[in-house]
Amino acid sequence: MQTYLSKEGLDKLISELENRKSSLRREIADRISNAKELGDLSENFEYQEAKEAQGTNEMRILELEEMLKDVVVVESQSGADVIQLGVRFSVQAQTQSERAFEMVGSTEADPISGKISNESPLGRSFIGAKIGDVVVVETPAGTVEYTVTRIE
């Protein structure tokens, strides 16, 4: 499965992977080694906690490597006519003030900062919309109609 990322998002994931493979692995190995010196491993909380951290770290490393295997870098686009990956846009709902969004891949989604995923229900609703289009979105609170006011 392809992972859609901005150049910035790709750099963050590569940095996280390098950190987890080098310094974090080393820190966890040191914690395990120190905990082993404390004696009986079956009742050693420090050892159990360090082994759990090791497993969590290794799972995240595998997850990152899998994401980076099929990465597609999406460049920010300006001057687009339709909403697509990499585009910033604004919408207006009837009873709300104008909201700005950026369409990103699911890995970089952060709805609080206005980055919505192309795979989310909200994001899927906006893909392909043009300025002036009314987009109907089903939310847990009910149906909301948004008018696309700007595409940057």
Tell me what you see in this structure.
It contains 3 helices and 7 strands, in the order βααββββαββ. Helix content is 40%, strand content 24%. The chain folds into 2 domains: 3-73, Transcription elongation factor, GreA/GreB, N-terminal domain (Helix Hairpins); 88-151, Roll (Chitinase A, domain 3). Helix 1 (7-36) packs antiparallel against helix 2. The strands form 2 sheets. The protein has a 5-stranded mixed β-sheet. The protein has a two-stranded parallel ribbon with strand order 1-2. It is α/β, with parallel strands linked by helices.
In a few lines, what is going on in this structure?
The chain is of the alpha/beta class and 152 residues long. The chain has helices spanning 7-36, 45-69, 121-126, and strands spanning 3-5, 71-73, 88-93, 99-104, 115-117, 134-139, 142-151.
